[in-house]
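Purpose: get a first structural picture of the assembly so the mutagenesis plan has something to point at.
Setup: two entries, given in the order below. No constraints added.
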Amino acid sequence: MNKKGELIVISGFSGVGKGTVVKKLIEKYHYSLSVSATTRAPRPGEVDGKDYHFKTVEEFRNLIDYNGFIEWAQYVENYYGTPRKYVEDELAKGNDVILEIEVQGAMHIKEQYPDAVLIFITAPNAKTLQERLEGRGTEEGKVIAKRLKRAYEETDDMPQYDYLVVNDDLDTCVDDVHAVIRAESFKTKKHNDYVNNMKEELFAIRKEILS
Amino acid sequence: MNKKGELIVISGFSGVGKGTVVKKLIEKYHYSLSVSATTRAPRPGEVDGKDYHFKTVEEFRNLIDYNGFIEWAQYVENYYGTPRKYVEDELAKGNDVILEIEVQGAMHIKEQYPDAVLIFITAPNAKTLQERLEGRGTEEGKVIAKRLKRAYEETDDMPQYDYLVVNDDLDTCVDDVHAVIRAESFKTKKHNDYVNNMKEELFAIRKEILS
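Result (structure tokens, whole complex):
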């Protein structure tokens, strides 16, 4: 049975720890991770090609013109995009590709890749989410309220996701996401060729036995 | 997030080893296994309540009249059925229930329980299936041809199953089936209540912070 590469889109509430989940998932299960391109300046410690592909505005716009992104968006004055080549090359090799991406981008991906698997990482409950945001200790009440408002709005998009996985215990969450990706590869609709081959082979073998 | 019990239907080609897969799955992951009722006589070594619930024809027909089965069928002169009470009790407790059942029965289950997860255990290819049937050593060519004919017919029903899992290596197959069941519990459509609660809670918390 041929295994095709799965395109896995991971989103989640701000503060839910999805970055950590994705990092651990890649380390433990060796999925291919798509690195976004951006025009924003690198922050201290960020490595080009690892954290982001850093581009000038001119380079980025040129890539848009050449259909170089499977999705892109502009926030304030910076561009962010998912490079097409890496994703399509990995999928063609049969590798599963992880994209960590915002809700809007996730919806654009689903339009172009209907087989993409959309996973939303969530918290056990709203209280826990609030505590995690407060736990960062760097943000004041107003900022936290703003993030909770955004989370509130994002609940409207949750039904568009195929799976909701709770990040309560990190290791459990990572294994849960891995189980989802593994299970997706067994979906019958992805194996029409296998079913047709099986049918033909069984017909031929039976004929041979009876002859 | 409340976890509801999943109803898992496992079918597969004759000779594919699905009985062994189910046995190992129950041992390793402690799923609840539904035991069928039948009117056929126990074979040597078979234990009432473990291999089957052995019933008289009168008892069985009475159970049909009282809606005691979620599906039943008659093969030659024997009845076979899946007792309703065990399945519904386990699901109500939030336990996942495994049914090992023929293709026709699986379709009846899906009609009544649209959320049931249908898994078809298959072989890497037809040649392997033939070899396994021959490897039993107890059956002659005609019987094997008959089983392969049945397998050929069953390929028509494979697209009705949600997942196809290949039994090449037994342990891998068992873990693959387990991953499917685990993943199913995260399907967004099964967690509408969670999403609605999250929305209400986030709204209330944000209001509290801003007040």
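The two ends of chain B are 29 Å apart (CA to CA).
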